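Handoff note, outgoing to incoming analyst
You'll be picking up this chain. Sequence as last confirmed:
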Amino acid sequence: MKVRLIKPKSLLILTFFGCGIQLSFGQGGISPVIKDNSSLLGQRNVITTAVPFLTITPDARAAGMGDIGVATSPDANSIHWNPGKLAFVDDDGGVSLGAAPWLRSLVPDVWFYYLSAYSKVGNKKRSTVAGSLRYFSLGQIEFTDQLGNAQGSDEPKEFALDFAYSLQLSKKLSLGIATRYINSRLVSKRVYNGVEIRPGQGVAGDIGMYYKDKIEINKRDWNWSLGAAITNMGSKITYTNDANRDFIPINLRIGTFWQTEIDDHNKIGFGVDFNKLLVPTPQPVYVKNSSGQDSIYPDGSKQLETWQTSDDPVLAGMIKSLGDAPGGFREELKEFITNIGAEYWYEDQFAIRGGYFHEAKTKGGRQYFTLGVGIRYNVFGLDISYLKPIQQRHPLENTLRFTLLFDLDAFTNQNNSSSNSNPRS
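Most recent structure output, in case you need it:
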């Protein structure tokens, strides 16, 4: 007998990417249960992974610009987007703390938290080390069996702990790497129908490149940058036994960002990111007729039964993901997500941001606009972002993010100035 997560808010939380998939625990671990084949036939083929919380945008600055971040100017949150950026961060040290009430239009008790910090090291300050902790609390989930009998409740939690190192290879180019420990406790250790359900654990790594330069266009100087990163390259995760493992969200992201000064007080920048999951695309499995052949509709199309997820090894799956879409090259292109964002600064103290996130309807259908503001004052900074989906009554509607930044370099200089201005007698 399967034990299902049937509480509505739980299903929405665990499938916050809008994939429309219900999760169930059975002999094969966590697997999709498709309720409406007609909605998938020739239309919807969503790539799903374990621990999707790893792809949640952690900082309000990036969130306000349509979730771009691989090539924007470095800050304390760069470890999530591209560890290569960290080598060019301006200050010697900094800390960032972010929080977001997730799916706030539907449930009140789901939160995402992110803490990150960095410090430059070495005599020439060409290297930077950084660490971060992301924590996802999914509120309370109630369990029932297929007959509706209560099977208890739990409070799922997920977290990831990161460490990164970045090095300037030249005045324009840097590389960075990161390692990550992942822990996903969707349920406490339990046994259902002889199958042990336990927390999923895994390790992963990132590698990123960041290049920056200056260029003159129409007698105006532009600072431009190019970034690329592959993140979450690592082991599969299982919640049952080692024979049933799911891909984590291995992701390829490339992008560029351009910024120029309008005058001595104002500057503006804009950028674009493209990212794609390096996870195999589910393959169609068709209904068989009595003779063992594919069942055909009157219009000549095959009758879809389900989508079969891949059990390839990680590296083979990454390579395969670049050209395995059942619909060919056209469908493969639809697996790229496009992020567009812009940012305006006044006196480097006040910022206004905007952006757009686009995902093909057949690959999840997330499409939304974002807005954001930022304030910098001496030691502290505050960023706030707001998300507005194009679709009505969307689970992500009215999502807010808050990020507080703390400049350790400015704090140290401020203390030194205070000490020099008030010497002991």
